[in-house]
Design brief:
The chain is α/β, with parallel strands linked by helices and about 210 residues long. The protein has a single domain, classed as Glutaredoxin. Helix content is about 30%, strand content about 15%. The protein has a 6-stranded mixed sheet. The longest helix has 12 residues. It is globular.
Length: about 210
């Protein structure tokens, strides 16, 4: 398994996001990772990336601070934290409503419960809008129009800062389709950049759901 990288440069719109997040696009000290080519990530019609091998993030000695940041699910209006779902597998993608590949990736995430069957009860899906120019009203309308009914929230600035500084600055680059998952013990794993198929995500997390 290969570690995370930030070999690609953020797109111009991402630079704006990063600057708005108080300079969190500083040098990232996480090791390199395999990612889909930028041309594939930017195309909503590109074939999904197939993979089964998650990429571990360097383990932290304590629970990551972003696990305890309060967020609001736009679908229900209820508050939640990552730490609320301890003991479950948590799939997290970062996105923006203007991003066509985000919609494509989220449509893959939408299929997971039906594919997982009884294992679906061990999975929590969370989508985080990291564009500081978007708010809960915009995001709620987007979720409703696309029938995205899982946890969807505007990411607080401290969450974006943590992801960029500790994992990969490209988590603030929605068209690259950043995604990670957290296992039942709190271990964090990055997935390759680019649109991923539902079946590839299922294969990646299946063993973690049954542990």
């Amino acid at each position: 398994m290969q570690p995370l990288t930030s070999s690609l440069r953020p797109l111009a719109v991402v630079l704006a996001c990063v600057l708005a997040l108080t300079g969190c696009a500083a040098k990232v000290d996480t090791p390199p990772a395999t990612r889909a080519p930028a041309s594939q990530a930017a195309s909503p019609t590109a074939s999904p990336t197939l993979f089964v091998d998650p990429i571990p993030v360097v383990a932290a000695p304590t629970v990551p601070s972003w696990f305890d940041v309060q967020m609001t699910d736009v679908n229900t209006g209820k508050s939640f934290k990552i730490s609320d779902f301890s003991g479950k597998v948590i799939l997290v993608d970062t996105m923006a409503t203007w991003c066509p590949t985000c919609q494509g990736e989220m449509s893959q995430v939408q299929q997971l419960p039906a594919m997982l069957g009884t294992s679906a009860s061990s999975l929590v899906r969370i989508s985080l809008d990291i564009d500081p120019n978007e708010d809960s009203t915009i995001l709620k309308k987007y979720a409703a129009e696309n029938k995205f009914d899982w946890y969807i929230a505007v990411a607080p600035s401290e969450v974006g800062q943590f992801l960029a500084k500790n994992y990969d600055v490209e988590f603030l680059n929605p068209p690259l389709q950043p995604m990670l998952f957290i296992d039942k013990t709190g271990g964090v794993y990055g997935l390759p950049f680019g649109v991923k198929s539902a079946i590839s995500i299922q294969k990646t997390i299946a063993s973690y759901l049954t542990q």
